[in-house]
Amino acid sequence: MSFAASVLTLYPEMFPGALGLSLAGRALEARTWSLEAIQIRDFATDRHRTVDDTPAGGGAGMVMRADVLAKAIDHVSPPGDARPRLLMSPRGKPLTQARVRELAAGPGAVILCGRFEGVDQRVIEARGLEEVSVGDFILSGGEPAALVLLDAVVRLLPGVMGNAVSGEEESFENGLLEHPHYTRPQEFEGRQIPEVLTSGNHKKIADWRRAEAEKLTQERRPDLLAAPAHPLAK
Ligand code: SAH
Predict the structure, then answer these.
(1) Ligand 1: distance of its center to the CA of 9 in Å?
(2) Which family does it belong to (predicted)?
(3) Where are the alpha helices (DSSP H) in 64-201?
């Protein structure tokens, strides 16, 4: 079973974009996952192919029309499609590695990319869209957010990452930020690789890495340590 992504966008040319290269691109070629980018404008009904209109109640900008979006969603995701329907949105639940893992274990995702001021609330409700944010900042459109989400998902699909172990030790996988990394040369501009890492003592190295990860997390992201699920939460 492969992960099937359907992206609804006004800019299908943005896909696969960066996901056509490197690990994700090779996995796309190997059909470990599939990607279709659907032009929302193809579902407009008037002769100007209008997808947006002025906001009810007034104000700046334009809003994407519920009727056009619903037609596009129904076309790629008819009733019975088991894939979650996501709307990239700064109002959404912040994307986490846990949600990324869930998505990667599922059949795929239908992803709607907003533009302008956003989308008519009624299509969010009528089609059960799950709003997903990639961070507390505003992008000009949902496309870069969709690329971010898919990148995070695809690298977890079976066979995509050469060294599967590296995935499990990364930031967030154990509720901690990752320890620092070093490689040759032994000395760089007067800075040495920490001695313990060249000691060959695997137990000491593991302890050092764990301690560094905890220190870094304490300094930069104490909120991660305080999360109820975290083993170090008090
Ligand atoms: N007026 C909206 C922002 C619209 S930005 C507001 O204030 O909430 C236009 C589109 O870009 C959005 O519909 C959404 O699809 C996408 N977008 C912008 N920022 C995003 C973010 N942080 N995460 C996910 N999608 C985002």
Answers:
(1) 13
(2) Belongs to the RNA methyltransferase TrmD family.
(3) 66-76, 97-105, 121-126, 143-154, 164-168
pLDDT for the residue numbered 163: 66
CATH topology of domain 169-226: Trp Operon Repressor; Chain A (1.10.1270)
pLDDT category at 54 given cuts 50, 70, 90 is very high
As a whole-number percent, the residues of the chain with pLDDT over 90 amount to 91
Q: What is the pTM of this model?
A: 0.95
Write the residue with the smallest CA distance to atom 16 of ligand 1.
142
Terminal alpha carbon distance of the chain: 41
The beta-carbon contacts of 121-126 under 8 Å, at least 24 apart in sequence, are: 122/66, 123/66, 123/69, 123/70, 123/73, 124/87, 126/66, 126/70
Q: Whose CA is nearest to atom 3 of ligand 1?
A: 117
What number does CATH give the domain 3-154? 3.40.1280.10
Above 70 in pLDDT, residue 164? no
Is the C-beta atom of 134 inside 6 A of ligand 1?
yes
Q: Can you tell me which atom of ligand 1 is nearest the CA of 138?
A: 19
The residue whose CA has the least distance to atom 5 of ligand 1 is: 140
Expressed in angstroms and rounded, the spacing between residue 8 Cα and the centre of ligand 1 is 15
User: How large is the angle between the packed helices 22-29 and 143-154, nearest 10 degrees?
Assistant: 80
Per-residue model confidence (pLDDT) at position 142: 98
Is residue 112 classed as helix, strand or coil in its secondary structure? strand
Q: Which of 13-22, 38-47, 106-115, 220-229 has the lowest mean pLDDT?
A: 220-229
Segments making up each domain of the chain, as ranges: 3-154, 169-226
Tokens of 189: 């501009």
